[in-house]
Write a structure and sequence with these properties.
Blueprint lengths: L4 E8 L4 H19 L4 E9 L2 E9 L4 E2 L2 E2 L3 H16 L2 E2 L2 E2 L4 E8 L2 H7 L13 E8 L8 H19 L5 E14 L2 E14 L6 H18 L10 E4 L9 H4 L2 E2 L4 H4 L20 H18 L5 E8 L8 E5 L8 H9 L9 H8 L32 H7 L1
Parallel strand pairs: 3-8, 11-12
Antiparallel strand pairs: 1-10, 2-3, 2-13, 4-5, 6-7, 9-14, 10-11, 14-15
Helix pairs in contact: 1-2, 4-5, 8-10
Length: 401
């Protein structure tokens, strides 16, 4: 590994058009799981000027069975979508929660997929698709996340909180951030460049109002990044294109699953390619990415490495994983193969089958909409939410080694 380098990660706000789509898709996942914990959902969302379209496949007892919607179900879906957009804050001519046109094109799950995934007879439940998933953790921040991504998320989350509270009424929902850090001996040493582009109210692109917006953003950055990383040498690019009044789905179409690097590790880790939002936890794109983050985080939290990547692979309809791979990038205190063996020996993990993952982490619950903005990882576990961020395997890993 290189020890001295520049590295950059970006984040996007809850009002970014792709994130609007992700949040709608996960609101639908939560809605169906609240009705049926064994529901099957694959919900894709398209957002554009005054339009939201749902498409995908579902199966949900009491809501959608045998190709038929239960009375009132479609109305509840539309209400859920509109409430999601309202919560984000879109009340603009080009995209308004109350008046956009809505299309629901969800339909029944393929029977051929269902027969491979569902448990039957002596056959355990299989993976919802083939694929590879990666989990990652490092000791760059207290949340064991890459620092560049962690700070990018936190800048935008703070700005959104100020917008919702009224502390920054000139902000509109759409925004992006990007943080570049210099690493020395593999550790964050200085912020060399920070980019923030935020949608704003009319008039905040010139004169005193522009200066007010830029001063506010610099204040958020100063409150977010450790003081030792900022200096007179840090370069700020705040709304570098100038005016940013037209944003969100009115400014650019949004689709579910187009921000997979923002959702995960900001480019610091490989990615298997599968998106998370809109998918129930039988889909290993989601659940296996969560379990590998959980495992990697516990490896780092246990002091077994300062940096850890874990890969897992599945075949559709097959319950047992095809492979498990651990790489501590030369930072491990024990051999990587021994960490692999220790993980496999922990009975609580249920052999890392799709069902075992869901049971261990408690994934068959409506817990997903909060994941759909500001990252699925590096969040604080609270109640049923973000269970893959717990570090309750630390002692078991140490004992196994």
């Amino acid at each position: 590994m290189r020890s001295n380098y520049l590295f950059t990660s970006e984040s996007v706000s809850e009002g970014h058009p792709d994130k609007v789509a992700d949040q709608i898709s996960d609101a639908i996942v939560d809605l169906f799981l609240s009705k049926d914990s064994e529901a099957r959902i694959a919900c894709e969302t398209l957002t554009t000027t005054q339009l939201v379209v749902l498409a995908g496949e579902i199966r949900c007892k009491g809501v959608y069975e045998n190709g038929q919607w239960a009375p009132g179900a479609e109305e509840e879906i539309e209400r859920t979508v509109r409430e999601t957009v309202k919560r984000i804050g879109y009340e603009q001519d080009g995209f308004h929660w109350e008046s956009f046109r809505f299309e629901n094109n969800l339909h029944a799950q393929s029977a051929h997929i269902a027969q491979g995934v569902d448990a039957s007879g002596n056959k355990d439940e299989g993976a919802g698709d083939q694929g590879i998933m990666f989990g990652f953790a490092c000791d760059e921040t207290p949340d064991l996340m890459p620092a560049t991504l962690d700070y990018s998320h936190k800048i935008l989350a703070r700005m959104a909180a100020d917008r919702h509270s009224g502390a920054a009424p000139f902000l509109e929902p759409d925004a992006k951030s990007q943080v570049t850090l210099r690493f020395v001996e593999g550790k964050p040493a200085a912020a060399t460049a920070i980019v923030v582009s935020t949608q704003h109210a009319p008039g905040y692109d010139t004169g005193e109002k522009e200066a007010q917006l830029k001063a506010y953003v610099k204040g958020v950055i100063a409150d977010t990044l450790p003081a030792e990383l900022l200096s007179d040498q840090t370069v700020y690019h705040i709304n570098p294109t100038g005016t940013f009044e037209i944003g969100g789905p009115d400014g650019d179409a949004g689709l579910t699953g187009r921000k997979i690097i923002v959702d995960t590790y900001g480019g610091a880790s490989p990615h298997g390619g599968g998106a998370f939002s809109g998918k129930d936890p039988t889909k290993v794109d989601r659940s296996a990415a969560y379990i590998t983050r959980y495992l990697a985080k516990n490896v780092v939290a246990a002091g077994l490495a300062s940096r850890c990547t874990i890969q897992i692979a599945y075949a559709i309809g097959v319950s047992e994983p095809l492979s498990l791979y651990v790489d501590t990038h030369g930072t491990g205190t024990v051999d990587d193969a021994k960490i692999e063996d220790a993980i496999k020996a922990i009975p609580d993990l249920g052999g890392l089958t799709p069902r075992g993952i869901r049971v261990h982490l408690g994934l068959n619950k409506p817990i997903y909409q909060p994941t759909a903005a500001y990252g699925h990882f590096g969040r604080r576990p609270e109640g049923d939410f973000f269970p893959w961020e717990r570090t309750d395997l630390v002692e078991k890993l140490k004992a196994a080694l």
